[in-house]
Amino acid sequence: MPDHTGQPAPVAIDGDGWVCPVPLRDAPNIVMGHGSGGAMSGELIEHLFLPAFGAAAANGLGDSAVVDIDGGRLAFTTDSFVVKPTVFPGGTIGDLAVNGTVNDLAVAGAHPQVLSTAFILEEGTPLAEIARVAEAMGAAARAAGVELVTGDTKVVDAGHGDGIFVNTTGLGVLSPGVDIRPQRVRHGDVVLISGEIGVHGIAVLSCREGLEFGTTVHSDTAPLHEVAAALLAACDVHMMRDPTRGGVAATLNEVARAANVGIRLDENALPVPSAVADACGLLGLDPLYVANEGKLVAFIAPGDADRALAALRSHPLGTQAVAVGECVAEHPGIVAARTGLGGTRIVDLPTSEQLPRIC
Question: How far apart are CA 315 and CA 29, in angstroms?
């Protein structure tokens, strides 16, 4: 049976003659799943990078690190973008890079301030394509109110890249008292999502594969700092994340395990637009695992949930915010979803990625 690289999976034969696939995570070489944000990514970090870094890996494993400098607190993040194609319905790799970095800072509770940007360009890439991406990046930075203060450009031989790769690094300032981390999540916390999920992944896939779903699905790439600020002003936010690679499922699993709580979802409450639901049904995908680039997931004490929803809905990017579940004492570290038929299914951390190269 082929694995997610498209090649036949290796097999192992036990003493009784049974033949079974060797787990993909035992692969000796990098495969696409290592970049998924799921279980294989986590194992690569835990078993390769952290032991190699040793004591130098001093901070946590969030998308942004919070560091204290001269009595002030800064959020610091870096991200690389390899989306294929570089231009897709609703965006480009340029605005995706700016918005993605801004959002990592925003869900850490920070006010984004400055970004760096680095381009890795393949020899032979048309200058017009690079100009379009750069212009989109500049427009996105202006819209988000951040400055692009430094950067770098490298060119690789033709055939040794894929057009345009972008790396962005960002700094943001945290206000006093802001404390966003999974360890603050408690039993009873309500799980909120700021809007419709799965849009970005389906937009990129439809463009990449030339698929048509009766309507054009546009990426939701957008900066979330104003939405996050409105939420922080309204209530005590325990935790926020932007559910990009691995989708909402990966984010909820990461928080459940870090906070040692169970999470119970209501599938009927999930804001899945009809175009995404139809595309996922056609392709055999689960919307919970499809990437987003303009949504946040928040964990709020039950007494603050109504205020939090009102704050989210007061911003144009949060008008469709809904409560989709709660944290429970049962099944700690596990996400379970109540289905439309009244049953329950486990929403596990994805091993690899349903849709590679989407950010």
Answer: 45
Bridge-based pairing of strands 262-266 and 335-338 is: parallel
Helix (H) or strand (E) holding 118: strand 110-122
Q: Coil, strand, or helix at residue 267?
A: helix
Are residues 83 and 35 in contact, defined by beta-carbon separation less than 8 angstroms? no
Q: How confident is the model at residue 247 (pLDDT cuts 50, 70, 90)?
A: very high
Where is 174: in which H helix or E strand? strand 164-174
Confidence of residue 352 (pLDDT cuts 50, 70, 90): low
Domains and CATH numbers, the chain: 64-174 (3.30.1330.10), 182-346 (3.90.650.10)
Integer angstrom CA distances of residue 76 from 31, 62, 79, 113, 239: 28, 10, 11, 10, 17
Question: What average pLDDT does the segment 147-166 reach?
Answer: 96
3-state secondary structure of 294: coil
Q: What is the pLDDT of residues 181-227, one digit of tens each?
A: 999 999 999 999 999 999 999 999 888 877 777 678 999 999 999 99
CA-CA distance, 100 to 168, in Å (whole number)? 9
